[in-house]
Amino acid sequence: MKTALFLSLFGLFGNTLGPTTPVRQMAIARPATQVVSAASPTPVTATRVAVPSGTRLETPRVTVRPGVTRVAIPAGTTATTQPATPSGTGSLTCQVSENGAAAEATYRVLDGSRVVASGRCLDPATRLPAGDYTAEVRLSGTVYPVVQTQRVSVRDGRVAALAARFQTARLTVTALHDGQRIPGRATLKKDGRVVGTLGSGVYATVEAGTYELVVTPEPGYEGVYGTRTFELSLSAGQVRAVNVSL
Predict the structure, then answer these.
(1) pTM for this prediction
(2) Residue 189 has what pLDDT?
(3) Could you tell me the strand order of the sheet in which 193-199 lies?
(4) Annotation: CATH topology of 89-166
(5) Pairing of the two strands 204-207 and 193-199
(6) pLDDT tens, position by position, for the chain (246 residues)?
(7) Hey, which residues does 128 pair with through a beta bridge?
(8) What is the residue extent of each domain of the chain?
(9) 101-102 and 131-139 as β-strands: parallel, antiparallel, unpaired?
């Protein structure tokens, strides 16, 4: 009986399934399972799916660069950075020469229009907050202010040095009338601007350079009138005496 049943089944399916017919392994859906968590009492339905053997599951790879953020900057925008503000305390010294020899001078250190330090150039170093300043050095003993301005950077724990070099000359102007010395006044101009005034017959220290010299009698001096104007050039270290007849 078993043999007859086998032959009947073979006759029914024999033409359909041959010895080389491949058989596809199908995914089998298993019954859904409800999962309830302590945090959420609402049941969550999970379905298990059997994946055919030999199947590869791939997930896309995302490259993450830690600490790098890209920001879009509009075209034409200029990116700038602010320099760090100096901190701490430094020192400042001042050295001045006049015609190559050491000379006396005073200085002022300015932060904008505010004076943060001042002193004499022969004094010991001055301590002041670190920063970038404008320094004015004024030579002593001149008939009018002779000043040099420069930038100076003071840094924490360091000594910044001011160094100014001046060139000067000695000048005297004497006003004469009929060969006799009379009270008069000599005015020095540079670029059309009055820089100093000398009394007649008085020696004074001035900055070397080219001047317009205007000589006039003392106001109120009787019988003498008029003005004499000259171009006067003075070199460093020169001593010059000028006599002007009025």
Answers:
(1) 0.62
(2) 95
(3) 193-199, 184-190, 209-217, 228-234
(4) Immunoglobulin-like (2.60.40)
(5) unpaired
(6) 444 444 444 444 444 444 444 444 444 444 544 544 444 455 555 556 565 666 565 555 655 555 545 656 666 656 555 556 667 899 999 999 999 999 999 999 999 999 999 999 988 889 999 999 999 999 999 999 999 999 999 999 999 999 999 999 999 999 998 888 999 999 999 988 999 999 989 899 999 999 999 999 988 777 777 889 999 999 999 999 999 998
(7) 90
(8) 89-166, 168-245
(9) unpaired
In angstroms, the CA 121 to CA 128 distance is 15
Which amino acid does the sequence have at 245? S
The three-state secondary structure class of 60 is coil
User: Are the CB atoms for 190 and 213 separated by under 8 Å?
Assistant: no
Token code pair at residue 114:
């505010």
End-to-end CA separation in angstroms for the chain? 163
Distance between CA atoms of residues 124 and 131, nearest Å: 20
Q: What is the DSSP letter of 208?
A: S
- Tell me, what amino acid is at 133? Y
What separation in angstroms does the CA of 4 have from each of 1, 7, 11, 12? 5, 5, 11, 12
* Superfamily of 168-245 according to CATH: Immunoglobulins (2.60.40.10)
Cα dihedral: 120, 125, 126, 132 (round 10): 100
- The candidate with the shortest Cα–Cα distance to 190, out of 156, 159, 144, 138, is 144
